[in-house]
Backbone:
């Protein structure tokens, strides 16, 4: 469906943004919740253990870059730590 295509396309774009921040960051549980005024883009990122940026920095960067794609996009991000 068109929705699936949109989700896949957006997931790829988010993947590119995350790679630009750091190649070692993975993301999962990607989903989109479209509302009347904005679209929530929800996902979890897994950052390396002892990562050199705070969770807030990671989230802030990704939110800003996703907002730049489209100013109706709002990223809701959980940060997981990889403990190995």
Residues:
């Amino acid at each position: 469906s068109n929705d699936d295509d949109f989700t896949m396309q957006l997931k790829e774009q988010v993947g590119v943004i995350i790679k630009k921040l750091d190649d070692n960051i993975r993301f999962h549980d990607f989903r989109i919740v479209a509302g009347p005024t904005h679209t929530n883009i929800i996902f979890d990122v897994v950052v390396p253990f002892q990562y050199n940026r705070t969770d807030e920095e990671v989230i802030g960067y990704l939110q800003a870059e996703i907002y730049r794609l489209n100013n109706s996009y709002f990223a809701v991000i959980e940060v997981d730590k990889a403990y190995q």
